[in-house]
Predict the 3D structure of the following.
Amino acid sequence: MTFALPPINSAQDAAATVSAVLAAVAAGDLTPADAGEISKLIEAYVKAFETAELAERLERLERMTSQ
């Protein structure tokens, strides 16, 4: 099975991707089980993105307070 996902460059893009996955299920292009597995991948990406973003913000705050 192949399924083209919209690009995910931010956590906000993940919402559009989830919408595409749901639309594919509704159209019969994806099974709910496949959609569930794809959703897990999207969730893992969002968590990684948010963690990296939080680490970057923390680093900036630490630089600001050490000046």
Remarks:
- The two ends are 54 Å apart (CA to CA).
- The chain has a mean pLDDT of 89.
